[in-house]
Structures are given as structure tokens and as C-alpha cells.
Amino acid sequence: xAELIGNPNGTFQxxxxxxxxxxxxxxxxxxxxxxxxxxxxxxxxxRVVALEDQVxxxxxxxxxxxxxxxxxxxxxxxx
Length: 79
Known about the structure:
The protein is mainly α and 79 residues long. Helices cover 37% and strands 0% of the residues. It has 1 helix and no strands. The longest helix is centred in the middle third of the chain and has 29 residues. The model has no long low-confidence stretch (mean pLDDT 85).
């Protein structure tokens, strides 16, 4: 199965094209919209990880399950 992969170096986009009733239900219509949303997810995930790394573990915050450091979980859609 083909996958759309988010680009962590992409540009965050605050809007996507609105689907119209006349749009065909084919990958060429939907894939660019999905690609934009997935790239936005990857960009936001990277920003959250960077902020968590800057802040570190907050006092009184429990250790995450699995022993992985905060902010180092799988990329969105990869885990």
C-alpha cells in the first residue's frame, strides 16, 4: 500500500482546499489535501518535541510508560 509521508522541513499551511460536490473521489483530488494535513502533523510534532526538550521533565510529573524519554515517541502515523 502506498503511503503519504509528512515532510518535517515543509511549510505549515493553515488551510486546505475545500472539496466541492463536483470533485471526483479519486486520489488526485484527495492526496494533496491529505499530504498537507500529514505534513502539518509532522511539523507540529517536531515543535512539541523541541519544546519538551527545552522544558525538560516538569517537577511532580510521572515518568512516561515504557521508559522512553518525553518527546521521543514515534512520528505521527508511525506507531
